[in-house]
């Protein structure tokens, strides 16, 4: 952290020293605190400028754009199948989940649907990206509060999930595996048993994190009642995912919209919390990770056989039209508004990423909090820089 | 005659189009009901609408009524979740799709501006999406942006979250939002010239070098030239 001292502040201190007054009431003078762009709490290069009065934040403003890659412009000069390689890199911790809504939007325009087995495998890989993504959040959470151990657990156990994703798709971080009309390949031999074993490990990881952090006195006192977002405010800012569910809104796009995916084929629970504070957001994410392991197991039990690719033309031209598809990604609602003019590539793609909305609440949320809580609140909101700047 | 398949098995030759081909009447009662509610609420402000059957309802409102329509929908129909706000430039790109060789003779490109669902009269349109978080039904709102003075009313007083989205739209499309407190750039340097997401803003990397990825099948590097291989076989 860099402190930018004000000239007035220095003058003030000097005059105080000159007067050598004692026992006066402590007055505070404003100071500007610059956090980032390079800071471990910012998951990339987010810069936050905070105006302080003593230990209290008067106003804070995130400064984005250190990682703006212009994907919306780039999609306009790509063909539809090529776009998945771009959108992979928006939320780089849950890459596969980024591909799915775009492919679904293209399929919706072409009026085709992937075969059931492909839908099942898509959903399984989607949930695996969620587990890989959120497990890192759970580990990272400890680091932001000064506990080192959870992050080692997280990196150790996330590797099992990444190995699974690599085993099925060939890419640890950027699978680029989803195709219009299905998937590139079927699952490799032995993958299903391996996945069942890893899901047990990940549940154990969740238990470990729960024992280490949730219930820890320091953790509780640093997160309970800190950064409270009421549900009306959360809705106005377009918060989504666990951030919204932690404010008591029972809304999960996996359950509440009909998509050609397999979430509605198995039983699972949507977790909510009514407090809306940092603790609630972390707690909801922990429960969701555990729930995801159950979803994966139940989907593996009911995995249908059959092809993983439907009939599509070799050169894909998407008919003229507009489609909006959003899914419940690890970070929240991720959606694409795809406009096609009947060409090889899209005419316009609006990428609605979760973190952009989730972080736009920061100026409102940080007003009046204390400096050490800035980091806790940012960590609990959970954003990925690529997902803000796109 | 197709043999009955065991349950859970899918005929690999069947495509989903076959099963849905029994011409289910393309209608969407839920969204038609919603549209009539929206029409009743907005009155004259609603210019045109389109139901994307089974997926979405798209409504175009008058530019002056852009902010008041959002407030009405929020207050009377419960559209209280702000999803996103952005814009579309409907002008066809004067630079083609990027797959073409920029040095080659250009073929004549259409310059006709054709708007999408729910129509339109101007080159650029602002569009946004709202969702009712109780019924989980969303609505896409569009409005025309006057060509001469690209200004539309701001949503900041209706949905606080529109603040950043309008800043982004202002920077990328050069559309101003009347009533927005602070239209600073989100991403680009303050002195950046031009509006990158407008179609007439060239993507410089494409100008310099044509996109090689348009070739669907490329020979593998080191795999030998196909023409040579054929020649030697003959």
Keywords:
heterodimer; A: 390 residues; alpha+beta; Cytochrome-c3 Hydrogenase, chain B; three-stranded antiparallel sheet; 9 strands; B: 234 residues; alpha/beta; Beta Polymerase, domain 2; five-stranded mixed sheet; two-stranded parallel sheet; 24% helix; 20% strand; disordered N terminus; transport (chain B); NADH dehydrogenase (ubiquinone) activity (chain B); NADH_quin_OxRdtase_su_C/D-like (chain B)
Topology:
The complex is a heterodimer of chains A (390) and B (234).
Chain A: E1 2-4, H1 7-19, E2 30-35, E3 47-53, E4 56-63, H2 71-74, H3 80-87, H4 95-110, H5 116-144, H6 149-169, E5 178-179, E6 182-183, H7 191-212, H8 217-223, H9 231-236, H10 242-245, H11 253-256, H12 278-301, E7 321-329, E8 332-340, E9 348-352, H13 354-359, H14 362-365, H15 371-381, H16 385-389
Antiparallel strand pairs in A: 1-2, 2-3, 3-4, 5-6, 7-8, 8-9
Helix pairs in contact in A: 3-4, 4-5, 5-6, 5-7, 5-12, 5-15, 6-7, 7-12, 12-15
Chain B: H1 16-19, H2 29-42, E1 46-52, E2 56-61, H3 66-77, E3 81-89, E4 124-132, E5 137-145, E6 151-153, H4 162-173, E7 176-178, H5 204-208, H6 226-233
Parallel strand pairs in B: 2-5, 6-7
Antiparallel strand pairs in B: 1-2, 3-4, 4-5
Keywords (chain A): NAD, Translocase, Transport
Domain NADH-quinone oxidoreductase subunit D (chain A): 145-390
Pfam family, one (chain A): Complex1_49kDa
């Amino acid at each position: 952290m860099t402190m930018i001292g004000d000239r007035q502040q220095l003058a003030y201190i000097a005059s105080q020293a000159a007067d050598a007054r004692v026992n006066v009431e402590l007055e505070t003078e404003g100071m500007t605190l610059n956090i980032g762009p390079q800071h471990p709490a910012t998951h990339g290069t987010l810069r936050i400028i905070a105006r302080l009065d003593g230990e209290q934040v008067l106003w804070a403003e995130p400064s984005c754009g250190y990682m703006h890659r212009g994907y919306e412009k780039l999609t306009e000069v790509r063909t539809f199948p090529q776009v998945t390689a771009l959108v992979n890199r928006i939320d780089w911790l849950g890459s596969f989940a980024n591909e799915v809504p775009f492919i679904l939007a293209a399929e919706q325009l072409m009026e085709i649907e992937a075969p059931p087995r492909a839908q099942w495998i898509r959903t399984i890989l989607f949930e695996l990206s969620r587990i890989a993504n959120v497990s890192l959040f759970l580990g990272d959470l400890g680091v932001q509060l000064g506990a080192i151990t959870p992050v080692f657990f997280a990196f150790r156990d996330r590797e099992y999930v990444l190995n699974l994703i690599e085993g099925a798709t060939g890419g640890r971080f950027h699978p680029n595996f989803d195709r219009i009309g299905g998937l590139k390949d079927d699952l490799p031999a032995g993958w299903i048993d391996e996945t069942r074993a890893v899901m047990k490990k990940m549940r154990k990881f969740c238990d470990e994190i729960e024992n280490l952090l949730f219930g820890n006195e320091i953790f509780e006192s640093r997160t309970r009642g800190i950064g409270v977002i009421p549900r009306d405010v959360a809705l106005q800012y377009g918060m989504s995912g666990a951030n919204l569910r932690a404010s008591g809104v029972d809304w999960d796009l996996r359950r509440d919209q009909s998509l050609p995916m397999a979430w509605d084929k198995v039983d699972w629970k949507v977790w909510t919390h009514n407090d809306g504070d940092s603790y609630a957001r972390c707690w909801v994410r922990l429960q969701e990770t555990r729930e995801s392991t159950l979803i994966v197991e139940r989907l593996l039990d009911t995995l249908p056989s059959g092809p993983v690719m439907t009939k599509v033309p070799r050169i894909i031209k998407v008919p003229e039209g507009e489609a909006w598809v959003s899914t419940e990604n690890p970070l929240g609602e991720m959606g694409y508004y795809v406009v096609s003019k009947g060409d090889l590539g899209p005419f316009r793609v609006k990428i609605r990423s979760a973190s952009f909305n989730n972080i736009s609440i920061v100026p409102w949320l940080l007003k009046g909090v204390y400096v050490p809580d800035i980091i806790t609140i940012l960590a609990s909101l959970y954003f990925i820089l690529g997902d803000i700047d796109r | 005659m197709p043999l009955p398949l065991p349950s859970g098995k899918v005929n690999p030759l069947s495509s989903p189009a076959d099963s849905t081909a029994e011409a289910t009447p393309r209608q969407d009662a839920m969204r038609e009901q919603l549209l009539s509610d929206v029409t009743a609420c907005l009155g004259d402000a609603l210019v045109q609408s389109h139901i994307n059957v089974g997926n979405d309802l798209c409504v175009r409102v008058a530019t002056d009524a852009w902010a008041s329509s959002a407030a009405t929908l929020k207050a009377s129909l419960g559209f209280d979740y702000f999803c996103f706000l952005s814009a579309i430039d409907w002008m066809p790109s004067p630079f083609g799709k990027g797959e073409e060789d920029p040095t080659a003779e250009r073929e004549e490109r259409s310059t006709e501006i054709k708007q999408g669902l729910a129509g339109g009269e101007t080159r650029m349109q602002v569009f946004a999406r709202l969702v009712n978080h109780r019924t989980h039904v969303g609505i896409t709102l569009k409005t025309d942006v006057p060509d001469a003075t690209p200004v539309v009313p701001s949503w900041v007083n209706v949905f606080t979250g529109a603040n950043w989205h309008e800043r982004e739209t202002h920077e990328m499309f050069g559309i101003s939002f009347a009533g927005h407190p602070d239209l600073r750039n989100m991403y680009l340097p303050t002195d950046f010239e031009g509006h990158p997401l407008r179609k007439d803003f060239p993507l410089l990397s494409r100008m310099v070098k044509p996109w090689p990825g348009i070739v669907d099948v490329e020979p593998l590097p080191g795999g030998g030239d196909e023409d040579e291989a054929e020649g030697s076989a003959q």
